[in-house]
Design a protein that fits this description.
alpha+beta, globular, Dipeptide-binding Protein, domain 3, eight-stranded mixed sheet
């Protein structure tokens, strides 16, 4: 059953329900072939939120969105270092005016999947759809976490930031030259702009769909991508169907650095994408259930084996390898360094933990000093991580392997800081605020086994410095909603690169992004100035110096406790073909294939 409300247009004779349209699409999709349906079975470890490119920032929603919505560019599957290629454009953007003007030509004949909003007509993708989708990011009602990619960069975009937002306001820097040609003019060159045109947030949204569903558009994803939404049981199971009206996309890649790459090229070269007929997605938050389901052949692959349960799959010890019984079954293992950072953020607007006065800074620094990264990596991550020193993970442009955080684990120093700034202990051993009021912290956490394990880690850390802490467990989507409203005091989070540049991480601490991507609401003029200067530079020693100073300010004011960069142990069954993690793309579903004979033989 699809948990979506039917949408009706007047007159009543033209009333169509989304379920009827999808039923028709599925019949068309299944017709005309005697081949068995190939279904890819995958896990998402957190619940999806809104399937709207403008607002989705959680991993589950982004993973689904990038298969439904089409940005203008995407990444070559196998090229390392990463390489951009066209997606819906006829050629790569034409860049002129010293890097400030981008001209793009959309391929004719690309169509949105059916929806009642189109009133029964076939709806072609046009240049205006991309301009509209970019304009939506400026809508203050959406609080888009992706506005940082465009705000202040596009010529004339200040006209969109008025008291009453008008999406129809003409903008000099956003123009459609004809039905298929758009031009974007920037105020200054931006070396990351092409990367941003490959993000799910810039995927094309049809205005008719946005107008029809308004604030419920996140429940009605309609795009032009390789898959379309099928059955949807929220927070439990989602079905994607291959979009049989998808334009002919033929795989091509010159990459082939190793034997696995060469095998993928051999299997995919000249083949039309996507390769499977369905993607069946299960939301499974419990780590043990994830591993057991993979071992029971319920899922075709498992990315990022949950570290606390690594011994169910891997041989314990210094060298990471599969258990012999899994090797005999043909299970494959790959160790992948993700462009990802795990951290704890603290709400700088919160009356207890926020603020920029010395006592508040001391409190946050003490919390950071209480975090033992070596113990965390050894016990919780089972060695599948490296300690984070800044927000930037390895292999992101701007990463400095020599930098070390000035807030290394030191409980003695943490307690001395709290004593010095008046956080005195009571008879029960727990501290009070300098004004004598109780010091009680609340950390939001995931309602899962992993979440509870993390809670106990932080309870231990806080007990060591005399701070009482309680935990509020909730769904990931609900925590995000509360965070956007400023109603979360502190929580653990993670960020995975949308594009492989340090800007994508440091924008999480940029003041004007508060309430969007900047959940900590850190707003320090000195940091903001450095960030703005760094945005004008390409990867260079000068920009790295700015990043160094930004890291120092982050640690000085401590809105974050940077934790780890994970090392992902990815495993897949022998019947899954063409599997390879991409550093930036969230999924590779359009490339994956199933060897039906091998899969049946394994059961």
């Amino acid at each position: 059953m699809i948990f979506q409300k039917p949408f009706c247009f007047k007159p009543a004779v033209f009333c169509l329900s989304l379920s009827l349209l999808l039923a028709a699409a599925q019949c068309s999709w299944a017709a005309g072939t005697d081949k068995p349906v190939k279904t890819l079975h995958v896990i998402l470890t957190t619940q999806e939120a809104a399937l709207d490119p403008a607002v989705a920032s959680d991993l589950a929603s982004l993973s689904i969105n990038e298969n439904i919505f089409d940005p203008m560019l995407r990444y070559d599957y196998l090229a390392r270092p990463v390489k951009l290629m066209t997606n819906t454009l006829t050629a790569m953007p034409e860049i002129s005016d010293g890097g400030k003007t981008y001209t793009m030509h959309v391929q004719p004949g690309i169509y949105f999947t059916p929806d009642p909003a189109f009133k029964g007509r076939q709806r072609e993708l046009t240049a205006q759809d991309y301009l509209y989708s970019i304009r939506r990011l400026y809508d203050p009602a959406l609080k888009s976490p992706w506005l940082f990619m465009f705000e202040g960069k596009i010529v004339g975009d200040d006209k969109l930031k008025t008291a009453k937002f008008d999406i129809n306001q003409p903008i000099e820097g956003l123009q459609a030259l004809d039905r298929y040609t758009l031009r974007i003019r920037l105020k200054a060159p931006d070396t990351n702009f092409l990367f941003q045109l490959a993000t799910p947030a810039t995927g094309a949204v049809a205005r008719e769909v946005a107008d029809a569903y308004a604030d419920q558009i996140g429940g009605h994803p309609v795009g032009t991508g390789p898959f379309m939404i099928g059955k949807w049981q929220r927070s439990f199971q989602i079905e994607l169907l291959a979009n049989r009206a998808y334009r002919p996309v033929i795989f091509s890649s010159a990459a082939g650095k190793d034997a696995r790459d060469r095998q993928i090229v051999s299997d995919l070269q000249g083949q039309r994408l996507p390769r499977v007929d369905r993607v069946e997605i299960r939301i499974m938050e419990e780590a043990q259930s994830q591993v057991l389901a993979f071992l029971g052949n319920e899922f075709d692959y498992l990315e990022q084996v949950p570290p606390p349960l690594a011994e169910m799959v891997l041989v314990p010890g210094a060298s990471i390898r599969l258990k012999p019984e899994l090797e005999r079954k043909g299970v494959q293992l790959d160790l992948f360094s993700t462009l990802q950072t795990y951290y704890v953020w603290m709400n700088m607007d919160d009356p207890v933990i926020g603020g920029y006065t010395p006592d508040k800074i001391a409190l946050r620094r003490a919390i950071a000093l209480s975090y033992n990264s070596k113990e965390d990596i050894s016990l919780m991550e089972k060695g599948l991580a490296i300690a984070a020193q800044t927000p930037l993970p390895p292999n992101v442009l701007g990463y400095d392997p020599a930098y070390r955080s000035p807030l290394a684990y030191d409980v003695r120093l943490a307690n001395a800081l709290l004593d010095k700034f008046g956080y005195r202990r009571g008879a029960d051993g727990y501290r009070h605020m300098p004004d004598g009021q109780p010091l009680d912290l609340v950390m939001h956490s995931l309602a899962s086994t992993k979440g509870r394990l993390r809670d106990e880690t932080w309870r231990k850390n806080m007990d060591a410095i005399g701070i009482r802490i309680s935990f509020k467990s909730d769904k990931n989507s609900e925590i995000l909603k509360a965070a956007r409203l400023g109603k979360v005091q502190m929580t653990e989070a993670n960020w995975i690169a949308d594009f492989p540049d340090g800007e994508n991480f440091y924008q999480l601490l940029y003041g004007p992004n508060s309430g969007r991507a900047n959940y900590s609401r850190f707003n320090l003029p000195a940091f903001n100035k450095l960030y703005e200067e760094s945005r004008a530079l390409s990867d260079s020693p000068e920009r790295k110096r700015l990043y160094h100073d930004m890291a120092q300010l982050m640690h000085a004011y401590a809105p974050w406790v940077v934790r780890i960069h994970p090392l992902s142990a990815d495993v897949w069954h022998p019947w899954l073909k063409n599997y390879k993690r991409h550093p930036v793309d969230f999924t590779t579903w359009r490339y994956l294939d199933i060897d039906q004979t091998a899969k049946m033989g394994a059961k």
